[in-house]
Amino acid sequence: MPHSTQILGISNAIVDILAHVDDAFIDAIGATKGAMNLIDETRAREIYERMGPATEMSGGSVANTVAGFANLGGAAAYIGHVHDDQLGEIFNHDMRSIGVDIRLEPSADGSPTARSYILITPDAQRTMNTYLGSCTELGTADVTHATVGTPKLVLLEGYVWDIAEGPALTRRAIEIARDTGAKVALSLSDRYCVQRHRAAFADAIRAGVDIVIADENEIIDLLEVDGFDAAVAALDATDTLYVMTRSEKGSVIVGGDEHVVQPATRVDNVVDTTGAGDAYTAGFLYGWAQDWPLAECTKLGTHCATQVIQQVGARIEPGLLDSY
Amino acid sequence: MPHSTQILGISNAIVDILAHVDDAFIDAIGATKGAMNLIDETRAREIYERMGPATEMSGGSVANTVAGFANLGGAAAYIGHVHDDQLGEIFNHDMRSIGVDIRLEPSADGSPTARSYILITPDAQRTMNTYLGSCTELGTADVTHATVGTPKLVLLEGYVWDIAEGPALTRRAIEIARDTGAKVALSLSDRYCVQRHRAAFADAIRAGVDIVIADENEIIDLLEVDGFDAAVAALDATDTLYVMTRSEKGSVIVGGDEHVVQPATRVDNVVDTTGAGDAYTAGFLYGWAQDWPLAECTKLGTHCATQVIQQVGARIEPGLLDSY
């Protein structure tokens, strides 16, 4: 069957609320710097009240990747849960306007659309404080043959395991992918997410994940090894493709007979690292979906990440391939 | 009486929805390039559906000036009408978070919070498409001694004349200012706004406006003269202070015995001219509120405008005076 959709993302649909803060602010609110901190509605209100003026834009890790994939010219679809409110409208608009096929309608019931208060410190790190809101209502009923369709790749987000039906709905997605011959990729989201769900991620990978996307910390925590070299050694015999990003140390692809090492591009003016990994993944998977050699996939991934860290905001711009 | 509030702004409270477009897009939607185009809810939906991904941030002309004034360290208050929705929350948060005293609560009834679809073309011009929504419900009942208080300056926005009770509520604001000894400034908003309300603006200025803020086109259209020199000549005998900005030609202040000419600062990297005039006004009025000589007020105004055209977005950042 031809794949009219190349990639289908399933993830938490989030609007980013970005503000610049100093390190004292991160300390004052007790957030873990550089991490995605899950917060409830009360704490969301507290943090927002203490924050300075902000800028709003659509976000979410795998949603950023899907948007980037579409902006590169790929055919993308998306399953995520927003509420029928203004933030939900913004999220869906931004996806649809670049050609992403949104598979779920906004919900009239339940919690408001998720938002992440993203605090950018002078060192260009981002500390995320995420109120999951409407995302928590994504369920197995939303993942069907009708909503998944027949993509070439289903891309799952580690953060989805943070919601109640996350384990069940991702299992269902893997089953549907197997039925339809789609490949499955899993982005591990962040090291704390790996620590929360290590066993579940290992089960999912065994059950049918073809591509694991991880940064250095995430793969070390997933495999419970001492360092990156030990992680690569542990992956020696695997058939799963591991796509591993290492910030300024570049990226490494391991799996089957493959072993690709791609250096990073030196950037003097890092503005905001938000979305670097998501942008890399967009570029890598875009190449993968066109059946490029892996070494070419890593080059485009690197190019996308290099662009996104030189701007505020996590999504790569349309037309990036024109300058590539 | 001491002025715990230096400036009180009364204006349309708007959230900006900013996107980059090409000139063909402006043609396709039939908007007047470089102008503020008033649109209804249906057209707002049409334009948004055709627009690419956007970024949201608080806006509004005089609201930007008030925010800039507060970011410079001045004591500011604000009267504007938002709905009790997510965009309204964003607008009020962004104002309050920099210390602006918000005088009206969000409305539970009526239209959603106003938004302006701001389309930035490659020449760094902005074309605004504004759905006034909740702003249209601002009324004379909202302008009282309690909500206005005793500021040193009441700053009115020309665009307020576009709403039903605008003429009456601005008249009321001028009366209250006269009662309390506050000065009144009027920002003419844009040349099309001047063309819509020329007679009403002239009446208001006669009735009690102490400072008129206008760009070159606005003052020419207000006075119905042939060019800027003719405008300056026509203002020779006035007691009202006219603060006139001329983009790269700098600014000119005329009124009473005053005649100040301030050159612009050369900028090679103009990113987005949105809010240049509003930022100038913030700097100028900040100096005025501290009783600086007018030549110093124009210098700070110029500095603020120079900053804001080198960024995307209309509001000047906190800490600008640190680098001044």
Condensed summary:
2 copies of one chain form a homodimer. Chain A has 324 residues and is α/β, with parallel strands linked by helices.
Structural overview:
Two copies of one chain form a homodimer. With 324 residues, chain A is of the alpha/beta class. Chain A has one domain (7-323): 3-Layer(aba) Sandwich (UDP-N-acetylmuramoyl-L-alanine:D-glutamate ligase). The first copy, chain A, has eleven helices and 14 strands. The first copy, chain A, has helices at residues 23-29, 41-50, 61-71, 86-96, 145-148, 166-180, 191-208, 216-223, 228-234, 276-289, 294-308; strands at residues 7-10, 14-20, 36-39, 55-59, 76-79, 101-102, 114-120, 126-131, 153-157, 183-187, 211-215, 241-245, 251-255, 258-262. Chain A is globular, with a radius of gyration of 18 Å. The mean pLDDT of chain A is 94. Chains A and B meet through strand 4 and helix 4 of A and strand 4 and helix 4 of B.
| Largest interface (CB < 8 Å) | A-B, 23 and 24 residues
Strand order of the largest sheet of chain A: 6-5-1-9-10-11-12-13-14
Report the biggest beta sheet of chain A as strand number plus sense, adding barrel if it closes: 9 strands, mixed
Radius of gyration of CA atoms of chain A, rounded to a whole number: 18 Å
The CATH superfamily label of chain A reads: Ribokinase
Task: Tell me the distance between the termini of chain A.
Answer: 31 Å
Mean pLDDT of chain A equals 94
Outline the secondary-structure elements.
The structure is a homodimer of 324-residue chains.
Chain A: E1 7-10, E2 14-20, H1 23-29, E3 36-39, H2 41-50, E4 55-59, H3 61-71, E5 76-79, H4 86-96, E6 101-102, E7 114-120, E8 126-131, H5 145-148, E9 153-157, H6 166-180, E10 183-187, H7 191-208, E11 211-215, H8 216-223, H9 228-234, E12 241-245, E13 251-255, E14 258-262, H10 276-289, H11 294-308
Parallel strand pairs in A: 1-5, 1-9, 2-7, 3-8, 5-6, 9-10, 10-11, 11-12
Antiparallel strand pairs in A: 2-4, 7-8, 12-13, 13-14
